[in-house]
User: Fold these one by one.
Assistant:
Number 1:
Amino acid sequence: MTGWVLGVDSGGSGLRLALARTAAGRETPVAAATATADGPVRTGPSGIDADHLLELVLPRTAALLSELPEPPDAAREDGPDGKRSPRIVAVCVGAAGMATLGDGLRTVLPGAFARELGARRVALAADAVTAYAGALGERPGAVVAAGTGMIATGTDLRGWRRADGWGHLLGDCGGGAWIGRAGLEAALRAHDGREGGSRSLLARAEAVFGPPASLPGMLYPRADRPAVLASFAPEVARCAGEGDPVAVRVLEEAAAQIATTAAAVCPPEEGSPVALTGGLLGLGGPLLAPLRRELASRLPHARTVPAAGDPLAGALLVADRLARDALRLPADPAFLHLG
Amino acid sequence: MTGWVLGVDSGGSGLRLALARTAAGRETPVAAATATADGPVRTGPSGIDADHLLELVLPRTAALLSELPEPPDAAREDGPDGKRSPRIVAVCVGAAGMATLGDGLRTVLPGAFARELGARRVALAADAVTAYAGALGERPGAVVAAGTGMIATGTDLRGWRRADGWGHLLGDCGGGAWIGRAGLEAALRAHDGREGGSRSLLARAEAVFGPPASLPGMLYPRADRPAVLASFAPEVARCAGEGDPVAVRVLEEAAAQIATTAAAVCPPEEGSPVALTGGLLGLGGPLLAPLRRELASRLPHARTVPAAGDPLAGALLVADRLARDALRLPADPAFLHLG
C-alpha cells in the first residue's frame, strides 16, 4: 500500500520523527519532513512511558502532516471531518530500551497509532534494529550503535543477535557514558591522590562541572545520568588527543570493548559488512584509531563499511517495507515487534 | 555536661539510631537502646532530605526515650508539660553523602534537634567520620568503610583526608555495588557471547533476578540502584569461592582498589593503624585473602587492626565527646560539622 510512513527514533537525549512517501522496489524512502523533541521519553515502573511518547509524537506528526506538499490521490483519504488528508500507512518506532522496557509501548502504541493516525501497520523496534536498518538496510551483517549507550546488532536475515545495550550500570561497554564515567573516575582519583588518576582530566572536570565536591550532587539526583556522564566523553577524547596517558588508555579500552561486542554478533561469512554508527564516532581519531586496530584484530573476516543512514532513516525504511508487505528483516518479539 | 546522647547512622540501605549515657574520661559510651528504619533517607534536588530524616528519627527517639530506665537526676529536666524527662545533651548524625549532599541537613538539623529534643550540641558527620570514630576512636590512622559504597578516611588529628566515597557512578571502587555491578556485567557478557563472561555468574544472576532481559527493568527504575547492585556481591564471592576465574578476578581487583584507596589517606607514621569496617567484610575469604595481600604490599608501614565498633558506636562517641566538650577529632565544614 502506498502513501506516507512515519518513522520515530527515541533515544537517551531526545526524540526525532520523520515522514516519507513509500518507496519503490528496494529504494530507500526519503524523509520529506522531520521534527525533534529534546530530552528522553520518561521511564517509569512499567518501562518506557507510552503516554509520554505519544504526547511528544502526535502533535508533531499532525504539524508535519499539515505542512506536507499536496499528496497524490493514492496517499489521501477522507478524514472524519470530511476533509481529504494525507494517509499514514505505517509507523515504525525505534526506541532505546525497547527490548527490555518496551512492554508498555507494545501494548499501547499499535492501537493508538491506528486510532490517531489511521496507521494499519506498526513496528516497534529496538533502537539497535533501526540503527541496523539505517546503516545496512536489509543486508546481513553487523551494526555497532555507539552513542550515550553501546549495542551491537547482527542478523543473517533468519534471526537477530544482540550484544550489550544493557544500559550504563550493566554494560554499554565502550559507549559515551562508559567513557565519560571512566574519565570522571580518573579525575576524582587524581583529586583524592589515588593511583590511576589524571590531573588533565581533573582540570577538565573542574572546568565543566565545577569543584569535585559538587559533582555527586549534580549527577545522582538527575534522571538523565547516562547523558551527564556521556557529556564528559569529548573531554576524555580531547585529553587523549593531547597525549594524556590515562585518557588514551580509557579510549583504547573502549575500542577493545566495542570490537569485542561487534565480534559477538557478526555473521561468520567472509566479507560480512560491519557498520559503525552513532554520535560516539564524533570523538574522532583518539577513539577511531584504536577502534580500527581492534576491529582488524578481532574481526579479520569482516569489512568495515560506512553506514548508509541513521536510525531515523532506518525507522522510515522499516515502516516503508511494512507498508508494502516487503519486510525482509526478521520479526522478533523483543527486537522487532510487528503490531 | 552529662545526660543522654543520640547517635544516628544513615546509610544506603537504612537508618539506625541509639541512645547512650555520657561516658567518663576516654571511655566509650555504651548504647542503652537502639532502633532502626529500613530503606535509605530520600535524596532530592537539594541533597539529602532533612525532613525525611527527621520523620524517621524523631518518633523513634521519642519511643526510645519513653522506654529508658529511670535516669539519674542529672540527666532529667522539666519538660514543657511539667514532667521530668530524660535530657538529650548532644546528637551526632553520620550520613552517607553528608560531605557532598548534606547542605540541607546542615541547615535544618541543628535547629530541629534543639527544638524537638533540647539538644544543645549537634554534630553532622560524613558516614566516613562516624565509621572512623567507631573503629579507631580518636587515634590517628586510617579507616576503610566498605559496604554498598567504599570510602577511606584518615586523620593525623589535625585534619581529615578522604579518598573515594564518590558514589556508584563516580567511584566507590571495590565496594559492594562495584563488585555486584562487575559480577552482573560478567553475567551478561556470558549471555551475549562476549569475551570476559562467566557462566557461573550468569546462572547466579538468573537465579536471583530471573531472565537477563528483565534485569534492566528491575534495576534502572529503582531509587536504590546501588543497593540492588550490591545485593549481587555475595553471589560473586560465592562463585569466587567455587573457583570461577572471572569472579576471582573481580574480587582481586576490588581488593586492589580498596588497598589503593586506603593508601591515599593513611598517615605516614610507622605502625599507623588501619581498620577495615563495613558489611563488605562479610564476603569472607574470597575478598579478605586478596585484601590482606594488597594491604601488605601497598601499605607496608601500617598495621591492620580490628575495628573497635561500628559507625553507630562512632556517632555515639562523637556525640559523647561533644556533650563533654572533649572532642579531639578535628572539625571540618564538610566531614564533621559542629552546629
Note: Chain A has twelve helices and 15 strands.
Number 2:
Amino acid sequence: MAYPDHVLIKEVGPRDGLQNEKSFLPTEKKVEWINELSESGLNYIEITSFVNPKWIPALADCYEVATQIKRKPGVTYAALVPNMKGLEKAMEADVDEVAVFMSASDTHSKKNINKTIDETLPVLSETVREARSAGKKVRGYLSTVFGCPYEGDVSGEEVLRITDRLLEMGVYEVSLGDTIGVGNPVQVETSLNHWTSRINPEYLALHFHNTRGMALANTLVGLKAGIHTYDGALGGLGGCPYAKGASGNVATDDLVYMLHEMGIQTGADLSRLAQAGRFIEEALGKPLDSHYMEVIRAGE
Amino acid sequence: MAYPDHVLIKEVGPRDGLQNEKSFLPTEKKVEWINELSESGLNYIEITSFVNPKWIPALADCYEVATQIKRKPGVTYAALVPNMKGLEKAMEADVDEVAVFMSASDTHSKKNINKTIDETLPVLSETVREARSAGKKVRGYLSTVFGCPYEGDVSGEEVLRITDRLLEMGVYEVSLGDTIGVGNPVQVETSLNHWTSRINPEYLALHFHNTRGMALANTLVGLKAGIHTYDGALGGLGGCPYAKGASGNVATDDLVYMLHEMGIQTGADLSRLAQAGRFIEEALGKPLDSHYMEVIRAGE
C-alpha cells in the first residue's frame, strides 16, 4: 500500500504528557501552552482529563483549563473522561469532544481503574450514549494492545472484540495504544493486517510510545496498513518518572518532521511547534527529549 | 521483499563513537571495552582509525589498541585507514581488515580531508590495491549519501558512480552513510531502489545516524530493499558535541533489540551488550543515550 498524502496528528501532550509530571504545572501555564499549540497548525488537541484529582493530581485543574483556553476555529479541543461523572464536568466545560479509555489486558485494567474489561464496557457504553445524545463525538482509547506490563502478550482477538464493542457503542475511532512501547514492526504489521481484515482502518488510530525507539518505524508500518491518524505528545512528554526518555509518547515534532520529509502533509508548522516546545521546556524547567528539539538546541 | 532471517551488525563504536569524544579515553579502557564487545556475540568490530593524531587526537593510540586487545576467534577486528601511511601502520598492527572512506559530496570531502572526490579516488585505489596484495579485505565507507551539511542534496548518480569505483578497486562492500541523519524513509526507499537496480545489495551496507530519530525506520526500509548489513555504535555513541543525543550513530543495542523482536537473528547477546554499555558509561563518566540502556537504567 502506498503512503497517504495527508496524516492527521492528534496532540495528547497536555493530557497524556502532563499527567505524568510530578510537579503541578500552574493552570495559566497549561492554558498558555495549549494556546501556543493551537497556533501550530495542529487541528486536534486533547487538553486534559476529567478524572478524579485523587488519581491524577497533575490535572486537577481540568475544568479551569478547558474554560480558560482560547479556542481557535478549526481546532478540536478534546478531553478524556473515565465515566459519567467526568463526562458531566467535561460537558459543563463544553469541550468539543470527549474520549473514553480502557485496556486490552484485564490485569492492567484492574491495576489502572480497578475494573475488569467486562466491568468497564457498560460504564463506557453509558458514557458514550450520554455524550452522543448531547451531540458530542466520542473517541476511544484502547491501551496495551501490543503488550501489557503485567501479562506480557495481549490477545489480538481480544483487541478486536473490544474495538468492535467500542465502535458498536458509537465511538467514531479507536486509538490503539502501545502503552509500554514494546510493539515491534513485524508484530505491528501482523496485528494490523489481522485487525484491518475485520475493521475498516478509517476507524483506527495508532498511539505509540517510543520507549524502545521503535515508534517511527512502527508508524511506517501503520501507514502501509492504511492507518492515517497518529497520536503524539510534543517533545515526547509523558516519560517514565525513573529515567529521562525511558517511556514517553512518540514526539509530535519528530513524527511531523518525518512525515513532512516523506512528503506527507499534516498541516502543522514545525517552527511553531518548536516555539510551543520552548515554552513548555521553560515552564517545566527541563529540556524536552525529542530529536527535533535536540537538533534545534544544537543549532542555537 | 520479506525480511531476512539474519542481519550482520558491524560495531563502529570504538572508532566512529570514540573519535568524537572530547576527553581522551585511556588506552587500557579502550582495550577493555573492545574485549567486552568481543564477548557480546558481535562478530565485527571496527576498533580504531589509523589517521594522523593531529586530526583525531582521541584515537592517537590506534596502534596500542590494535595490538593490546584480546582477539576472539570468529570476530573480525577492522580499522579505518585514510591512505597508504595509515595502511602501513594498520598492517604493522596486523588488523584483520581495513576500511577506506570518502564522501559523496565534494564540499564535505574538501572540508573533511582537504581533497575533492576525484582527488580521493586514486589515493584509495592505491591503498586498496596494496591492502589486497597483502591479503587484507577492504571495506569502503561512503558518507553523506542522503544529504550533506554544506551542499544539502547529494546526487544519487554520484553515489552510484563512486560506489562503482570503490567496488572496481576491490572493496568488498560499500557502507552507505547517512552522516548527518537526514535521510527519510521515502528518500531511502527511492534511493535504494535506484542503487540496487544497478548494484547487487550484497555489496552494500547501511550506516545510519539517529539525529532525527529516523534510523530504525530507515533500517526497515533497508531490510525491505535487501540490504543485510548495518553499522551501529553501542549506546548511540558518536554524538554531536553540542547537544546530548543530537547526532549519534544508531545505537547497536536499539538496532539489535528491534531486530531480535522482529525474529531476525544477529548473533549478539543483549545482556552482554548492556554489560559492555555499562562499562563504557563508567569509563566515559556519562550515560549512554540509547533507548535500550535507558530502559535498563529505569528498571534498576
Note: The first helix of chain A runs from residue 13 to 17.
